[in-house]
Amino acid sequence: MSIFIDENTKVVVQGIGAQGTFHAKRNQEYGTNVVAGVHPKKGGTTWDELGVPVYASVQEAVAHAKANTSLIMVPAAFTKDAILEAFNAGIATIICITEGVPVHDMTDVYDTVVRRGGARLIGPNCPGLISPGKANVGIIPAATTMPGRVGLVSRSGTLTYQIMHELAQAGIGISTCVGIGGDPVIGTQFLDVIKAFANDPDTDAIAFVGEIGGSEEQLAGEWIRGNIPNTPVVGYIAGFEAPEGKQMGHAGAIVKEGGPGGESAAEKKAILESYGIAVAYNPSEAAQLMIERLAQNA
Amino acid sequence: MDLVEFQGKVLFHRNGVAVPPVGTVCRTVEEIVAATATALADGFAAVVVKAQVKIGGRGKAGGVKLATTVDEAREHGSNILGLDIKGHIVNVVYVEPASDIVEEYYLSVMHDRVNKGHLVICSKEGGVDIEEVNRVNPDAVIKRSLTPAETSNGLPLTIAKEIIVGANFPVEVQDEAATLLVNLFAAYVNEDATLAEINPLIRTPDGHIRALDAKVTLDDNAAFRHDGFTEWKIAGIDAIDPLEAEAKEAGIQYVKLDGHVGVLGNGAGLVMATLDVVAQNGGRAANFLDIGGGASADAMAESLGLVLRDPNVKSVFINVFGGITRGEEVANGVIEATRRLGDFPQTLIVRLDGTNAEEGREILNNAALKNVIAAATMHDAAVLAVSHANNA
Fold first, then answer.
1. Domains in chain A, start-ordered, CATH in brackets?
2. Do B147 and A19 touch (CB under 8 A)?
3. Do the chains contact at B272 and A112, CB–CB below 8 Å?
4. Please, is B342 exposed, middle or buried when counting C-beta atoms within 10 Å of its C-beta (0-12, 13-18, 19+)?
5. Complex confidence, ipTM
6. What is the DSSP letter of B388?
7. Domain B22-97 carries which CATH code?
8. Tell me: the pLDDT tens digits for B129-143?
């Protein structure tokens, strides 16, 4: 098994421009079942690079191509509407790569699609997810990893690749890797993914990559201690060197000046370690900690 | 982006949030004197000369002064202009007719990251640090979380009234305060703010409610639907570093830091981790720079140029793991940047991995650039970058 995506995933792509085509093609080459593209003005044509039909709406892609997952790569200004379109068409798993989506848009989308709608939304501002050997939906370079039994959840795209790469070099593969995104409002939280891994019989251990800002890592840590204390969990929090009050690229990566506390990397590390979770100082050390934890359990 | 007080008041006013009589934005002592003379001639008893900086604690720092005569205004103006308030130099002041104050309250609307909704905070005890009020007397602070479903047609007046009544505002101002809160919420939504704070919200002797101060943060991601927020971009009110200003202009994610290793990479998390790894190997990063996803050769050249213009930079660590950014784009960017920049003394340590990384490394190797070193891992690259910075 794996979580959120697997061999039954049928992807419709919203946003079939140059970038969308480049990555959807890579997803398809990996073996992901990309069934359609959507473009309001190109319905009835063929997406030549992928050899799949283009429909005018997600609803048509669901009706005709049985799409059950959407990959969204439209510009930020159109993202809210694209997510709502996928949701209204009955898509259960929506993966949004787009960065730069306004906070108010995502607050509205979260309320409709996730809180009240119960759909699985991953992102925005995320690299997507991969269940190695089964499906890759998004922009994760699949060559960095291989099938295995470690679940990986991350707020950062490139750091995720880094850790998968280092684990792979040690012969350790991944059940599913989920990039949840770096924005203040995202559809799927750390804790949601960790709960899904806890219920996945093919995930034995969990690695996570957090960042400064917010308190999602701490919430996940508390749940881990209370519910899966024996599962090996290791993590890394990026931003030990980040000064207070400066936004470090990601809209959500900021330690608020005079804020509630607990938002810095050092504070997050201390809180997580108080829950018995090993937290590394850098990504390589995180991979190394996981390798050691797995060796102990073997 | 953060607005200064007078901008916040402009934004409030156009959304129906009552503010004091409009004042004058000044950049010189002469302008302050003239604005004061006009206000006094218009029948106002006094003016307040207020530093316009994007940092709290202006009053304590001597940046807010009352003047009842032109001479007082001149003295205050010359003291306040040029004042350094926690690293923010005062270049702009706002001369506003002074308001008579009966009581001071607190009111704010902000994005609620934890609950993924909106948060209204209200207290009868304003004009002081609200965190402190909350610590000493949490019952005096009303915090009301709201979901978008509750506010799909704006903040309902009934909820606004509940909040105001809950905070024990005097009966005679409750209706006016509730209406002001509805409008403040509308301002927060309409203008794509993540924070709209009034501290203090005052009651005047004639029984009206006014926003005496305004603190507004706008969501940069929403600039596309507000004409790029150009109306709020005025010279002299940002305390940011000149290189940060240049980066902002070019749309590059850049934060100036105080070390000697220039850092650029793709992805905010990776760049943050790069700063961490540099520090763990005995160096300090000179900056944070995220070239982002899908960075072209142009963006790479521009970013590298920016990093190298910082005189503190003694070596540069380029850390790229390819997802959306392809290796050949990065390599071509490095080559293009070195070609455009001509001779520079710093050594570039390039770590390239991920999508099309091999093609990228091949392009770099074939170019045989004299001060570019390819490193195999993040750790090796950090060690090299630190040693080149220390020996430069």
1. 10-122 (3.40.50.720), 141-297 (3.40.50.261)
2. no
3. no
4. exposed
5. 0.91
6. H
7. 3.30.1490.20
8. 888 888 899 999 999
